[in-house]
Amino acid sequence: AFKAAVLIQQWYRRHVARLEMRRRCTWRIFQSIEYSCEQDQIKLHNFFSYLMDQFTPSSSKERDFISRMFISGESYKEAELEKYCDYESIEVPDSYTGPHLSFPLLPDHATALLEAFQQKQQLHARYVLNLLHETRKHLKQLPNISHVSTCYSEEITVCGDLHGQLDDLFLIFYKNGLPSPSKSYVFNGDFVDRGKQSLEILVILFTFLLIYPKEVHLNRGNHEDHMVNLRYGFTKEVMQKYKVHGKKILRMFQNVFCWLPLATLIDQKVLIIHGGISDTTDLDMLEKIQRNRFVSVLRLKKRKESSGKPQIQAINGESESGTDAAPRLSLQPQSAQAPSTANRREFSRWLRQTVQEQIDTCRRLVDISESEPEELTYSSMVSLKDTDEPCWTRQEEWKQVLDILWSDPMPQEGCRENKVRGGGCYFGPDVTEKFLEKYSLQFLIRSHECKQEGYEFCHSRKVLTIFSASNYYEIGSNRGAYVKLGPDLIPHFVQYQANKTAHLLTMTQRQGFLVALFAKISRVEESAFRALREKLFAHTSALISAFKSYDRDNTGKITLSNWATAVESVLRLGLPWRMLRPQLVRSAKDSMLEYKSWLDDLAMEQRSQEHIQSSLLEVIYRNRSNLETIFRIIDRDHSGLISFEEFQQTWKLFSSHMNIELTDDGINDLVRSIDFNKDGNIDFNEFLEAFRLVRQCP
Fold first, then answer.
1. Which of helix, strand or coil describes residue 106?
2. Could you say which of 1.10.238.10, 3.40.50.300, 3.30.420.40, 1.10.260.40 is the CATH number of the domain covering 614-694?
3. Composition bias, kind Polar residues: at what positions (predicted)?
């Protein structure tokens, strides 16, 4: 009996160890593919940014159009935004049965919204715009770093990423209670994208923010960015739910996002930021920058420079040596001599006046009218008050915001560029230690990364990651969690899974733990490997080239070890391919793989019913997300259709980049050839079909 018990125990431990290894491999697949997509998004955006920086419009009309297409929301003046998003002109019909809002908001309004959204009702566009208008007014008065104290409430609840999963927010409120004077919340960004109910989450959070402005605090995440929203679903969600007023609602959301605070500080001891820090993170700078200038953190406006001196490029694109060379900006004062630097206040005042004169000169040269004066905001008042502080460059301010929204911790020492995501940096425990010591902090709370248990400590428990979107990759893939902090600042965690299937799995565990665990891992594992096989198929051509480099005798076979090395060299996902091989390679004799047959099997799994040739299908699989994002960028009014004018102006960018001379008539002929149904617009299917036809051309 004793020997039998030992054998059972050994079998059980081996089996659990194998399941844990499979679980970790599955997790790495999901995470590697997610970060790879983020890299693609940033590369695509950098490409368009490069085009914008290099392209010289031939007329003021063309310049204005391109600016509207790629620099969304930044050029809107205060009065123009109010006029564009005029909610008062929108009538609510008598047939509307959804919730009604009146301002100032009351707790009953929040309760009505929660009940309506549970019943799948939709808030009328007038109320959405009105809510966004009031939210924007409130956010503009908030500092960049919100200061919260546990003295005014028993505890503060911190929630991480929600990513459009409304069921998770409902479950948090069910378990922890609704926001109230005695129940404070901090929501740490990434409210939108990926999930299907991002808009409802924002409406609920903004409503509670206006009802309880001292108890509800919202931080900006890296997905509160209109360029990220183009790829990950929020833009599409808004336009599908509000077909008539969707453009106005999107415009207001974009403007509200840039006014969200960047961080929250609890009792001057716990800093809450969405992503992380770097070795250059400066809270003093973050406290004083004008955060609303960064509508999209992905793009920093660049000014062309030559020999380190600013200059303005000529409108007609002539070089500096030509007759229409761009006038240089002199950094020397024209009207008054510089005062002595001994008097810092006088020198600072003179410097600001000189800079303003240069800005006015720039505006006159490029015919840009001065913006209307906006009402004073918290950050602008801080900037005016602290005249003795150094003036930071736009590049320095942008990097501060980018780092706190996009960075991740790493176990190694130091700080390095985050090439996995493509933005922000990796910061080590030494960076954390120095930062905490500099600002007398106990620990950091951040989000930004999905964790299997919903939370995770690192850096000797000095950095806490909290993630509130359960079942993020697949049903059963991870728990969600939130953390509660009392006056002692000791974290208490609550975990959950907001899904009926996951609930059934936990009930099944009472009858058989291993059976339930195996079923859960198998389901998630199957989804992960399906996504990985799609990724492999999308790189078929590159894989064949890599395999042939190991098959010098053209036998059509390579070793499994070479297969693993070649796959990693192409996909660069950092996965343990030798361990994953049994799930990906089903047939291999004598440790040799017939790679063409293996790729044919992948193609058979992915081939659609349209009988598209494999090479074309491979290209579409590999580039569909990028093509869809490009389509949405060109589709400036988010109508789901590209107008001829939008296509023409975008093609001028591409032709300028590729040095292709094409007349307006040539562009018109091209766009008409893509418009297959001749309705005067290009839809997404026609856009994809154009790439298919190009692929088939000899």
1. coil
2. 1.10.238.10
3. 308-322, 331-342
